[in-house]
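Researcher: For the annotation table, I need structure tokens for Biotinidase. Please keep the output clean. Sequence:
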Amino acid sequence: MTYLSLTLLCHLRFTLRVPRSWCFQKMVFMDLTSLDHLLLVTWKPFPTLRRRAGIRARSQKDTTTLRFTIIYLDFVMARKLYSHNMSLCLNLIIFDYVCDSKVLQRLSCMARRNNLYLVANMPDLQPCPLKTSPTSTCPPDGRWQFNTNVAFRSDGLLVARYHKHNLYFEASCDTPPEPEIITFDTPFAGKFGLFICFDILFHDPTVLLVQRGVRQLIFPTAWMNQLPLLDSIQFQQAFSLGANVTLLAVNIRNDRLIMTGSGIYTPFSATYHHARKGDPEEGRLLVARVPVLEPLEVKQSAAKEVEAGGGESTISVATDSGYCYQDSCDDPPPPSYPTFISSMMYDTFTFVLLNETQGDIKVCNGTFCCRLQYRWLLQDHKELYAFGAFAGTHTVNGRYALQVCAVVRCAGLDRSSCGQEVEEAESKMDFLLEGNFDTKYVYPSILTSRMFLEQPESLEKAADGRLTMKHSNTKGGLVTACLYGRMYHLDNE
């Protein structure tokens, strides 16, 4: 019997370019204590899940020092080599020129013995020239080192290998010559796609997977949280909602680098854990039962875009009559409010302070405009809030074009503190947040006090690019409400 479950491990990371000779040393360190989260996802009731998995995940004891595995790199076979139904659990030495694949073997055996599909992140060493790209130029040391996802079937068969394309401060890693679009099939939920960490912010390969109809995505990461817009769980849920997919995200835990936050997200639900500094170091087992999302109908065009309405979605199409938070859509346009400029996450936002008990505010950054209708349910006068807009190219620690509408709690009572990091809040509001976007790739999020997520009450998208997020009866104090638009086509301009 095949148990309908999938296990995600994020356990092997490396920060130095490993000398060639290390590949041939039989030095293997694979300690599950470095895990932050172990995710088990089931597509039917699975009462013996914890017992059968036989794996207990806990975070490393010393969170002040990175304990990433850097002493061993494995050779991970290309798809055409591992397509012959060979289980690494039963075939340790496959090719004479491959150094002992003990890490792969252990992962294979873990999947086989527990009858689980398993995905892990690990380093991969490939000789030059690459079999998948024989004409590509070799790195100076004559070999390739990739940040890699591997996927194993429940019988231990290696079924997928993905090399990360968008690197983030990874001097030890090489960028593959071309983006890899990697998927694998399961009998319980269809096709899964693979990508890693910083990939989530870029078109290739992430959006390409979605455009090809893949509705289940697997996302190991070492994510450095950055408030108020890009906390780990915040953007994980935002991507799931905006792309209309199920996202299985597993992060590592390192308090010094502000790394934590994993979850199982669908367009309708979120099961997640976000540790805070000082919280117990033990890892968290996340278990969720999720629906199988049908593949979206793919439009046959040069752009290969996804047809609207091709599957279930939390984002509905706005009608011609409009979508209003107020009683009448014929209300006059919002009055002008004094604006100010402040930096948020290294980008120059145009802000308006929210000083009234309720209001209807429009703020523009250049020609890009956002609108907020709000009413305070609970207003702590020791807290200051601002509503901001940004349109431009982010250029710090990465280059990507954005259009963003955001309501944020300021760090202090001075407007110069608006845009700084805040984790807690007491004030609650009902709101409608709207932006006139020049992109259909918009990722909505609501983050409340002490790192809790809330599902938007409704999301509506109009044909003219207007996206509206409505939410009421906020359970926690509002930290951020955001519409994060990605202008992928402008990244290189």
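Researcher: And a one-line annotation?
Model: Residues 167 and 243 are 22 Å apart (CA to CA).
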